[in-house]
Amino acid sequence: MSLVTDAILEKLNSLIVVVSQTGNVEYVSPRNNVDYRQSIIELTLQQLKQESLLETVPQERLLKTATGGDRWILWNTSKGPLNTLVGIGHDITDRKKAELKLLEKNTELVQHNKDMLDSIQYASRIQEAILPDVQKIKNAFKDAFVLYQPKDVVSGDYYFFYQRGNKAFVAAVDCTGHGVPGALMSFIANGALKEVIIKKGVEEPSEILYALDEELFLALNKSKDGVVSLDGMDVAIGVFDFVEQTFSYAGAFRPVLVVRDNELIEMEASRYPIGFYADVQKVFITQTINIKQNDAFYFFTDGYCDQFGGERKKKFNRKQFKELLLSAQDMEMSEQEAYLQYVLKNWKQEEPQTDDILVMGIKL
User: Fold this and answer.
1) Which CATH code for domain 3-91?
2) pLDDT, tens digit, for every residue of 267-318?
3) Which residues pair with 234 in a beta bridge?
């Protein structure tokens, strides 16, 4: 090699070995600081035995240095003039260390993600445990269904049922957010409803909402820093009185739909949520109607109506939802639930679920 060539090779972070057809080492690039040179020469001689070799795919090799250390080499071998074998080894130790470090971080991230998903799955089982038994709801009425479909593993939607004497209390709750934050709010909603209805014995729907508003404010504003929480929930609360044959309702942004004789009646909610607007004087109003045999009542959150889909990728909307319920009145409640699921799936197609979904149907 010329002095110029040697000078260039000296600057490269690589080692070049040329071996003759008889196995003699004809050239080794002048890298005085390379202490794995002997390993490279031995590797080249091994390659020489592969007579069919024309050119190999680059390979990463871990080699031992003369001092007992480890070096990663990107190894290329090809046949040169006069059947010589040319081996070129690039030192990629620094790159390999970076790759291994990244792999280690990725492994940690995968494990962290698995641990987090396991925790959320466990939280889902806890959330399911606080939800009322659907069979108890079905036993209290002529027929009923609960379509409950979280957007994520856990849900910000929550349903409540409690029966005391001749009265049955039913509520559909849509908490701020979905996923873990929404689920945590649903635990607060569960505790607040039990405190107001079961422990304190409040029975009138509007009074239940006032009490819930107070309970939620106290639960979310325990800190002394003066910052008022902006979390809240929308609630539809209904009380069925089987002796008086009445249904009483009050809503905080959540209406109740009643289907009677194939006509739909919307019991409208007050335009105030539970929580939020702590400085606003809220007004919740109880509405009471007489109930008739075969009346159907629907409690729901906004997830079903807000689902994007269809040819134009728009929301399903409240109007279509009402028409859907009317079209299903000849079905049993279990069939209605399956029908609603089918329509929803057909509507959204490949679109992701927009929000948590809750629809409760009750027939008298």
Assistant:
1) 3.30.450.20
2) 999 999 998 776 778 999 999 999 999 999 999 999 999 999 999 999 999 9
3) 174
Distance CA(351)–CA(355), nearest Å, equals 12
Environment class of residue 87 by beta-carbon count within 10 Å: exposed (0-12), middle (13-18) or buried (19+)? buried
The domains of the chain are located at 3-91, 98-130, 131-363
Q: Could you read off the pLDDT of 54-102 as tens digits, one per residue?
A: 456 677 878 776 677 777 888 777 776 666 777 777 788 888 888 888 8
Tens of pLDDT, residue by residue over 141-159, are 999 999 999 998 878 898 9
Burial of 282 (0-12, 13-18, 19+ CB in 10 A): middle
CATH superfamily, domain at 131-363: PPM-type phosphatase domain (3.60.40.10)
Whole-angstrom distance, CA of residue 255 vs CA of residue 341: 21
